[in-house]
User: What shape does this take?
Amino acid sequence: MQYDYERFLVELGSRVKQLRKERKLSHRRMVTDFGFHLGQLAKIENGGAVSAQTLLKLCAAFDMTLEDLVHGLGHDIQG
Assistant: This one.
């Protein structure tokens, strides 16, 4: 199985934005309640690199497992 890192980041950003909106979490609430920085959120939602620590913070904010957060992201179905 092969993964495309750049594709993973773009898809992760889209998923984070979608989850945040579905849960009605504003950027402000993500900052105040979960300790994110505003610029950090913008970077993530726009496909920027993310650390393992930040992935785990996102899981806590969305009350989900890491497996659920990243399931299917960046997978190259031709590989």
In short: Residues 2-68 form a domain with the 434 Repressor (Amino-terminal Domain) fold (CATH 1.10.260.40).
